[in-house]
Amino acid sequence: MSDTQPGAPAEIIEADLTWTGERFEAGVQVAVGAGARIEAVGRLGLNPTRRLRDQALLPGLVDVHSHAFQIGLRGRGERFPSGRGSFWTWREAMYELVDALEPERFRALTLEAFIEMRDAGITTVGEFHYVHHATTERDYDLDIVLLDAAAEAGIRLVLLNTHYEAGGFGKPLHGSQQRFDTRSPSEFWMSVDRLYSGLEPDTQTMGVAAHSVRAVPIEAIVELHQESSRRDLVFHIHVEEQPQEVEDCVRFHGRRPMALLDDALAIDDRFTAIHCTHTASDDMQRLLERGGNVCICPLTEANLGDGIADVPAIHRAGGHICLGTDSNARIAMTEEMRWLEYGQRLKAQQRGIVTDQDGGVAASLLDVATLNGARALGVEAGLIGPGLWADFVALDLTAPALRGSEADTLLDSWIFGTGNETIISTCVGGDWRPSRSARVANARSRDSD
Length: 449
Ligand SMILES: [Zn+2]
Prior knowledge:
- The chain is built from 15 helices and 16 strands.
């Protein structure tokens, strides 16, 4: 490292404690280059330009699966006057929201979701974006609105542009689903190609999604997946969230959705199956052997009553589990992390499911929320390490919930004992922003001065 341009670090960060991959360490400095990437990590002996006193530094969290606009359903779908609700009654409420979604409202909701994500320590989001049109005329206007909202919130975005062409197995689209219609793979790729010039070069990339085996015929899924592999893009799809999807698929194709995909696609580490709540163990094994990722969305799956995926089997097989905030009814990655573990504890009546080789859970859950997420989204992030993007979360060590934590208990305290209130600021590609709870606290202390 030299003092001369180019290559001089733009910033030398030093927190009281820094997560170095397996533990928190004191005295560690992080040098960030002018290109917003980390250049060096360690005891560098430099003068810090950003001294984070009473703070701990973590890699930014990665939210692999979000539908940002669904934050508009928060607080709306929680009453069940005609008896029990289900995923499918929730979906009707979601379609009602879509019907009333003007571009301004879509922008306001997605912006709010992305800002909340940063407040929750999320520095990268994979937005599984299927509401493309402001009207039923296939205008693709909302694609641009989404990119703008992410740029304003300052969150790193992997736009998982989503193909949607059927209203169910062998069924045409109906009603609000017209707002999702990308018609054919060729029209879909034209819409993707139009978007490239609108991407922020340092913080926005593209991936591809097929909504599900119900919304996209298998021939189109194969075509999309082949082209996304040729372009080296990640590929995501909802898989087996609901038993009805499995039953309908068996009736139509003679196979379950995951088996259908395992048979038809050349799956590799760029493939992510979302949910896999009801996936058969053989089908899961084939997915994992080929390097496929599994994205679990614990809070949404609980809210919708989906069921509980076989996380112990995936973890035992060395599979790559990542996390999504999905419907965004609550945006809190510490809760997603601990509920990945807690759901299994409740089911198995045991403790210690997503363990690492030392028997700890927290470091393993953090990997799920960082490294594994970055892998599923094809983003060079997820760790405080040289060459990766300068994406960080800073924790307030004076926060009541963390007071008394030592370096070796801090991560456990944070994951099992807090929501978003200890997150004091986040950094995306060198752009630091205080979280809203920190801004409120600062304003209060100014008022009382
Ligand atoms: Zn989803």
